[in-house]
From TrEMBL:
PANTHER family: CARBOHYDRATE KINASE PFKB DOMAIN-CONTAINING PROTEIN, ZGC:136858. The keyword Metal-binding applies. Residues 62-291, 339-394 form the Carbohydrate kinase PfkB domain. PROSITE patterns: PFKB_KINASES_1 (PS00583). The keyword rRNA-binding does not apply. Keywords: Kinase, Metal-binding, Transferase. It comes from the Eukaryota. GO terms for molecular function: metal ion binding; pseudouridine kinase activity. This is (wild Malaysian banana) hypothetical protein. One of its GO terms (biological process) is pyrimidine ribonucleoside metabolic process. One of its GO terms (cellular component) is peroxisome. SUPFAM superfamilies: Ribokinase-like.
Length: 422
């Protein structure tokens, strides 16, 4: 009975997820170091490893007094979260970061090693004060206040340190940068990637740091801002600062997806015109806008043709059955040219525990799926399903993923995808 159930569940997963990331136990755990990808096949992620201190009051916090609640230490940092999540989804990235020998650094590395992840690219020094972020939530799980001490990311992840791993970057299928890095380090890493023809994914991190795209936009292939980060990025590249965003609501109801898109459309078009090929605009409970000018190109030897052929056939059949996007998906997957496309992917209802890490897991789900040969439509659907699992977890990255659930939820998401006029 148990084996029959397992076969049925794995069969469901195969409709969407690559066979190599299915688990006999119906969830994924990090693979051992002996099974890790060799140099030349691993996405490279550069950015912060941060210890998050989560303070969750039982009732909404009140200024000037303490409130009963729970305080937890959680491994965090945008780049670290993406790397851990990608690993749990079967794609082993190479992480470049820095921590100290202090309590926070030891806690982060202890967890990292226990998950079977490599520390080869992680600088540890007594002169480093490990980045820490203290976060206070409200009773619904939304961020109420936070204080970040992450100067070490800028100070120690220098161009000189990054240069040591140039061979990893030059052989990677993609370079992922989080905007905690110093602008000079971001530019240096981008230049290495550009010289080798490696696509670059820019993760904005925050409204303030998202503006660091200004000096490197010509190198950026993909970016994953939320609404406010999108506007900040566009204004950082515009001399007139003409882009605005106002989240309007009526009687607790958020504005329609269509009106939200019309408000963000000028900034989206502006960034695509600046050369960014793909934007994943996160909208919280309203889902995701996927905006495409051109598909990112991977090196042919990094995505094996045999895997792409099999998954490609399954992909078109799946999309044909799930939503009325056959013509659009065929056009996008083929020769896109210079025409831009935009799609709205709906979010699914979630039982919110914590919202930190959800955006990072969305990006990780997209990258892990895309690196495994999926087209971007299915990759975004998987990413949203992975983000839902993160929202329902107390940690930034869930301890385990039930892939049959992710597969089923991704199908539901794809069935609700709508093309938008861009």
């Amino acid at each position: 009975m148990e084996s029959a159930a397992r076969r049925r569940l794995e069969s469901i997963g195969r409709h969407l997820l690559p066979p190599r990331i299915l688990s006999r136990d119906l969830h994924l755990n990090p693979v051992s170091l002996t099974e890790s990808n060799a140099v030349g096949s691993s996405p490279v992620i550069i950015g912060g490893m941060i210890l998050d201190i989560h303070a969750k009051p039982f009732t909404d916090p009140v200024p000037g007094t303490t409130k009963p609640g729970e305080v937890q230490y959680v491994s965090g940092g945008v780049a670290r979260n993406i790397a851990e999540c990608m690993s749990k989804l079967g794609t082993r990235p190479f992480m470049i970061s820095a921590v100290g020998f202090d309590m926070a650094g030891e806690m982060l590395l202890r967890y990292w090693k226990s998950a079977g992840l490599s520390t080869e690219g992680i600088l540890q020094s007594k002169s480093i004060r490990t980045p820490v972020v203290s976060i206070v939530f409200d009773s619904s799980g939304e961020l109420a206040a936070a204080v970040a001490s992450v100067e070490a990311v800028e100070k120690f992840l220098t161009p000189e340190f990054i240069k040591q791993f140039q061979s990893y970057i030059c052989s990677a299928p993609m370079l992922i940068l989080d905007a905690n890095l110093h602008p000079k380090s971001i530019e240096f890493a981008c230049q290495i990637a550009a010289a080798a023809g490696i696509p670059v994914w820019f993760e904005p991190v925050s409204v303030k740091k998202s503006t660091r795209i200004a000096t490197v936009v010509n190198y950026i292939t993909c970016a994953s801002p939320n609404e406010k980060e999108l506007i900040a990025m566009a204004n950082a590249l515009s001399s007139r600062k003409q882009f605005k965003f106002h989240c309007e609501s009526t009687k607790g109801q958020r504005q329609s997806v269509e009106s939200l898109f019309q408000m963000l459309k000028p900034a989206i078009c502006f960034l695509l015109d600046k050369g960014i090929k793909l934007l994943v605009v996160t909208l919280g409970p309203d889902g995701v806008f996927l905006c495409i000018r051109e598909w990112p190109r991977f090196k042919s030897h990094d995505l094996k043709s045999s895997k792409l052929d099999g998954l490609g056939r399954m992909s078109h059949e799946f999309v044909d059955e799930s939503c009325s996007l056959k013509q659009n998906c065929t056009t996008i997957s083929g020769q896109l040219g210079f025409k831009s496309y935009a799609f709205h992917f709906p979010a699914l209802h979630a039982s919110v525990v914590s919202l930190t890490g959800a955006g990072d897991c969305l990006v990780a789900g997209i990258l892990a799926s895309f690196s495994s040969g999926f087209d971007m439509m299915r990759s975004v659907a998987v990413g949203i399903a992975v983000a839902k699992a993160a929202v329902e977890s107390e940690t930034n990255v869930p301890a385990e993923f039930f892939l049959h659930n992710i597969a089923g939820e991704a199908k539901i998401i794809l069935s609700g995808v709508k093309q938008l006029p861009l």
